[in-house]
Amino acid sequence: MQMQSKQMDMPLLTPFKIGGKTAKNRFVLAPMTRQRFEDESGTPTSLVEAYYLQRAEAGLLITEATNISATAKGFSHTPNMYTPAHADAWRSFTDSVHETGSLIAMQLAHAGRLSNQRVLPAHQHPHAPSTMDVNYFSRMKNAENVMEQVLCSPAVEMSIEAIKTVHADFCHAATLALDAGFDFIELHAAHGFLIHQFLSASSNKRNDLYGGEIENRSLFLLELLAELAKHVPLNKVGIRISPVGKYNGVDDTEDEALYRYLVKCLAKLDLAYLHVSEPNWNGSQPMSEALRTHITSTFTGCKIFSGGYQFQTAEERVKSNTVDAIAFGRSFIANPKLVKHYAENLPLHEVRKEFLYDGAQIGYTDY
Ligand SMILES: Cc1cc2nc3c(=O)[nH]c(=O)nc-3n(C[C@H](O)[C@H](O)[C@H](O)COP(=O)(O)O)c2cc1C
């Protein structure tokens, strides 16, 4: 009884429905690349598992961006999901998460042009919708084992055949991830990764079917979803988009129309959820209320919003009944027991930025 009244006062502690399942509360761990994996395997070590389990008070955990193939890699020390051995290695990880009562999604990603020959097979050039001047960076360890930002290598324009291969790689990775016990897979269509590179006019300069008008730029993603539906139930597929922002050399700040169209298309599919990364956390202008209303009223399925949320703003969003859950990023890094901090009104710790992408257990499992 006491718990019930506490939940009513604290809307983020109530459960929500997602893809036919129930998440225990409305806290989501946002996907965050932490570069603590071993390059050779790209599967969870005990350190990685400890990091996620510390945060398994959340209703839903989303893994950091996970490579769907060797050619999808953009950053060193990131996870992989493209062989049966990867799926086998992830299975005990998903079992451990489920024992806590949390759900877990794997974010599947292709970095596209956001890569460097140093981390790609046979030092090949990264793949991208178009070849353009390089003014964006990736992050990897150098020969002295020091993590550094590196200018990306010039990309080659993807052929139609290469596009089909990437679609097949996403489907293969999704099948493996669900087989490994993940509740959902999340397509990373945000933050300047490959799918976003196709969506945005700033990075897609193609003259064929996949470039030009909004409908054409959206085709790479919409065809991928159609392919995915042949391999996995779409109610196990979430998608993350980052409307009207500026990330990793991709700039959509003036393109509300793209996201109006895209969300209309996504609303017709029975997806597990739509995850919206809002633009302001990364220095762009906030999303207009008109676009927010368009997204929340058009996509009637489960919605997760993220980017710069505090407990109070998260509560307001959930109370308005327009959003189901809020994904927290940096505050969840610095406060593994974020749900407890909310429930018991405890003060929050600050994130140590110098260890976001490096530092083994420091700034990772020692908060
Ligand atoms: C260290 C770090 C790594 C990130 N890696 C990813 C990633 O792999 N995939 C992704 O979609 N977003 C990534 N993001 C963005 C976060 O998911 C989130 O949207 C962002 O931190 C804003 O939320 P916050 O204000 O609650 O931190 C990353 C952010 C940080 C700080």
Automatic annotation (TrEMBL):
InterPro entries: Aldolase_TIM (IPR013785), OxRdtase_FMN_N (IPR001155), Oye-like (IPR045247). Residues 12-348 form the NADH:flavin oxidoreductase/NADH oxidase N-terminal domain. Signal peptide: none annotated. This is Alkene reductase.
